[in-house]
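**User:** Everyone, produce a chain:

**Assistant:**
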Amino acid sequence: MKRLSLTLLGLLMIFTIVLSACGTTPTSAPAQPTAPQEASQPTNPPSQPSGGKQQVEVFSWWTGGGEAAGLEAMIKVFKAQYPDIEFINAAVAGGAGTNARAVLASRLQAGDPPDSWQGHAGQELIGTYVAGNQIQPLNDLYESEGWLEVMPETLIPLISQDGKIYSVPVNIHRANVLWYNPKILKENNINVPTTIDEWFAAMDTLKAAGVTPLALGEQWTKMHLLETVLLGTLGPDAYNGLWNGKTDWGSPEVKVALQNFAKLLTYANSDSASLSWQDASQLVVNGDAAFNVMGDWAEGYFRELGKTPQVDYGWAPVPGTAGTFQFLSDSFVLAAGAPHPDGAIAWLKIAGSKAGQEAFNPVKGSICARIDCDKSLFGEYLQSAMNDWATNTVVGSLTHGVVANDSWKSEIDTALGLFVQNGDVDAFQAALVAACKSSGPCK
């Protein structure tokens, strides 16, 4: 019995050793988490879809007319240089980015950023995305691509903070453009107005003749009109003072500007609230209205419609703003934590390149951000814009993100919406004073 017990014990020991030898291989110790990379070094390895192809998702609000055509032209350059990277066009429709930026904000809040997105140079970029730690600096890219030598000195401070550059400008747009129908003006013996009083007189003549004097669209186009009237009434120095605290929003001069704006609204089409900027612009080139105030992306739209400059449409600075270029600049950023950072860097290289900007801007209806683009590629209007950009006094746009952060702009927009409904200039001015105290430099 004792011998049997020893035998059984030996077999048990052998069985235990065999199990140990045939078991699963022990796993290695868990990898230690790596330290997060510096935001200024966008060198994370690219994420790839299951098929192994690299991707880049680019978010914008360019979905129609010359805007979409310009974007497609730049995408074509991208695909030619980076055929192995799948381009995902995540554009969302909506004038001036109203809808798109709401979608983008939701995605960023949910931790689901696109790789790169369209953002206006100025306070929209610095006061929103930089302040929210949502984008990465691009100094290394600027150095490697030599962009500091070809980008205007005017732009770099508007896309920088604390010595870090945060976006790649692709264009320059002019906001203070008065578009008009040459045939309507000729038929009514009207010269292109250069002052606000001349403009009022011209529109009185048109109104008496049964012609719609001014084409307007949804609310953001009214804000666009407002900023040009502020500029035309106050002049560039006092206009700039609105945004740096040197001009009193409650001053009599600002009240005159708001009264001018209120009077202009009386000449507009009654269905403006239901029209897009394209709809309003088309009223002019179709001969259904005489004037429209819109940025020069409208010119790209007119050419997409097959319209002829100086025949179907003409242009001039908004009355009172001659010699001043009210600008904005579209740019693209690199998301913090971009899902496909290598693809994003490739896209940004194209956005900042001469080839990319020369493909994009003549179609979009804008001029290059770069100073070395071939002027001969651009049409009559854009060549005139190039000359004015180089010689005029430059001020920034409110509607398009240059002069006010999102919070301040939102408060102005709310006040404007109430004013459009009630027409109370005093209440409007008081609300603008309060907005400056709340979110601007008047604290």
The longest helix spans residues 2-22. The first strand starts at residue 54 and ends at 59. The CA atoms of residues 214 and 267 lie 6 Å apart.
